[in-house]
Specification:
By secondary structure, the chain is an alpha/beta fold. Helix content is 31%, strand content 18%. It is built from 8 helices and 11 strands.
Length: 320
Amino acid sequence: MCANCGCQGEAKATVLNLQTGILTAITPADEHKGDAHSSHGHVHGDGMRHNHAPDHLVPHRHGGDEDDHNHVHPDHHHHHAHGHQDVDSLDHEHGPLRDSLSIEARILAKNDVLAAKNRAWFSGREILALNFVSSPGSGKTTLLERTIVSLASELSLFVIEGDQATANDGERIRVAGAPVVQVNTGTGCHLDADMVARGLSELKPGLGAVVFIENVGNLVCPALFDLGERAKAVIFSATEGEDKPLKYAHMFRSAALVILNKIDLLPHLEFSVARAIANVRQVNPDVTVLEISALTGEGLENWYDWIRHQAAAVRQSAFV
């Protein structure tokens, strides 16, 4: 998992506001600044660092109430006989594996706390947040460009654009007409909740907006990291093979929407739409599936209607 991959490398993430040109580095030092563009944190006695989302994203109570901050503490480790298969059953002979699992659990626990804060922030402002995930080259950015051009007159649209490097896709989104921040993850293979919070602090989407989060092209790690979104939308194209949902079942299982893109290429491919959708249903029986061509526009009205329905549901949920 991410504790063992490039996400823990030396290259640091950055946030580029493409409206202002301001570039902000996401580094451990930022955790102590506590300004409007960074999270602030502290270190517990056991050495575990805990971060808070940016102040203006999360309402704070003052006056010393002990409920002011949520803390995530590591589990207390204890040993069991080898017959048990849980994490705490690992003894000193399995130290490296145990340490790796502990790090992974802490990373995800920390992320979940920040994702919950993002979700509360979205909910309080009736903002629809959608997490776009896919393999590289599936057509996420092209789909967003078409969506912005078509819906900008009726919805307030904002984009957090995620890539390891370059602002190429962010520039495409800016030209299409939506406010956008580019988050470059360096060696990271996914966005996390803290990166999204930092992006939001630059974007400042208003009441009732729609925020599209275009994740890094990867169908593995983004499935594990909650960003505080209302729903994940998985995009895969007819050029990728019918068995993609079976190969990356965890990602497809976590999706509320699956978009099959590039159907304009079907006459030139050996690809069965029926078989591909059957594979999607095998791992996620209740998911909504749409067939589109982001290039020609075929099927996009169904996609737009889905966004409208989700945005309306978010507004309605504010009164429940």
